[in-house]
Amino acid sequence: MTLRELGFPTGRLAAGRANRLSDVPGVRVGHATIVRGQGVLRRGEGPVRTGVTAVWPHPGDPFREKVKAAVHVINGFGKAMGVSQVQELGNLETPILLTNTLNVGRVADAVVAAMIAANPEIGVTTGTVNPLIGECSDAWLNDIQGRHVGAEHVAIALRDAGPATPAGGSVGAGTGMVAFGYKAGIGEASREIDAGGVIVRLGALVLANYGARGDLVILGVPAGRLAPPGAEAPAQAADAGGSAIVVLATDAPLDSRQLGRLARRAVLGLARTGSHVAHGSGDFVIAFSTANREPHRADPPMSMRCEHRLLDHSPAFDQLLRGVGEATEEAVYNALFLAEPMTGRDGHHAPALSAERVESLLATARRASG
What we know:
Layout: E1 28-36, E2 48-56, E3 65-76, H1 83-89, E4 91-92, E5 96-100, H2 104-118, E6 132-136, H3 151-159, E7 178-179, E8 182-183, E9 186-195, E10 198-210, H4 223-226, E11 242-250, H5 256-273, E12 282-295, H6 315-337, E13 342-343, E14 349-350, H7 355-368
Parallel strand pairs: 5-6, 11-12
Antiparallel strand pairs: 1-2, 2-5, 3-4, 3-12, 7-8, 9-10, 10-11, 13-14
Helix pairs in contact: 2-3, 5-6
């Protein structure tokens, strides 16, 4: 059960219909989850607690119809792939894939193969392709050296992306992730904003894998320090480091510069949950707009299309900036509340965060504030 379902919404803006990234029309999320084996670590064999998550920016082929995009690096202690081209060109031309740190290469290879299969001209009669891959380390629960995510798992995540996928928690890339000493993983949230009578949507998906227990803050309440006696001991691997990948999607007509402005606000949401962006954090934000797609072929070389764009000084753009912090914060909470407890390699155990205990803390804080 999520905080919102318990009666504690995050922020001031209205959430989308499903409160998920896919509330942005056309955006799809898919997962492949791998859980097998138990006991002592056998390098290259298991136990396996890992996976891959795919985000499609629209229903078509993103190589043929690129979307405006931006990447913001909050702290670069990470092994993300494809970042520099997005920053340089301001567009995205593949699905976004998330996985564990040592699996980036295998996942990228599988995405490139999928894109070539759909576009045989890649690298022959047109340019190459830029896969965008984000990662966090699941080494505490998973045999990360085994690099167990293969092409078949990437294919499942790409193929099965849609509204029926799990809402979050220990799924896909989030399978082996831990945050604030508790089992975490994938979390999503969304916001709706009135842009002069037209509703625009903003969604956030977070791969949460950071923070020590004492750092955890929930809706302004230092829950990590106020957990009542008898609460299950948190995972010992969690420290002040770790990483987070944030994916932001919107159907508001924004250019890459504006998307960069949105991406830079995601740190507000992470900070509200207790992140201080430690030295060892690999924190990346990927933002894209589904509006005003760019054709791959520059023929004719000058675009004659009249593209609408939301103005920076409009109230709606300001609300989008607000929405980034709210949706990112709530997505982290959902990653925690939707995750089930998990035991991984060498008996390492990540307990679930107790919704009942948090509800009691928040209710007490609400009564105290009047």
